[in-house]
Amino acid sequence: MATPVMVLFSPVLVPSAIVIFLVITGFLFSGGCGVAAITALSWIYNYVQVKHPLGADKLDYARDMLASMTRGVTEKAKEYGQYVKHKAREVAQGERS
């Protein structure tokens, strides 16, 4: 007797079960995103307040390495600019001769 009733109500029960599953999943996902956001904001607050949170050493090291690489690239660009300027002068003087 249960099978015919289930077959009759399945067009209503299956979509409603899917909707309930999606709603519950959405609430869990939004809650997880909220917890992640609070954790990230707490870490940033502690980092700015110089309380040295977990992982701050790696962040400082990466920042220092990036600054070092940037200085190196800047120096190379200046050297190359001087080289190009010098070559342009040589070419200009060669054309005058």
TrEMBL record:
Q: Which keywords does the record carry? A: Lipid droplet, Membrane, Transmembrane, Transmembrane helix
What is the name attached to this protein's record? Oleosin
- Which family does the similarity line name? Belongs to the oleosin family.
- Please classify the protein's predominant subcellular localization into one broad category: other
Quote the cellular component terms of the Gene Ontology held in the record: membrane; monolayer-surrounded lipid storage body
Q: Where located?
A: Lipid droplet; Membrane
Q: Tell me which positions the record assigns to the signal sequence.
A: none
The record's InterPro entries line, in alphabetical order, gives: Oleosin
Q: Which domain of life is it from?
A: Eukaryota
Q: Is-annotated flag, keyword Thylakoid? A: no
Give the record's membrane topology. Answer: Multi-pass membrane protein
| Source organism phylogeny | Eukaryota, Viridiplantae, Streptophyta, Embryophyta, Tracheophyta
Question: Which regions span the lipid bilayer?
Answer: 12-45
Species name for this entry?
Answer: Gossypium stocksii
Asked if the Swiss-Prot or TrEMBL record annotates the protein with the keyword DNA-binding, the reply is: no
GO BP terms = lipid storage; post-embryonic development; reproductive structure development
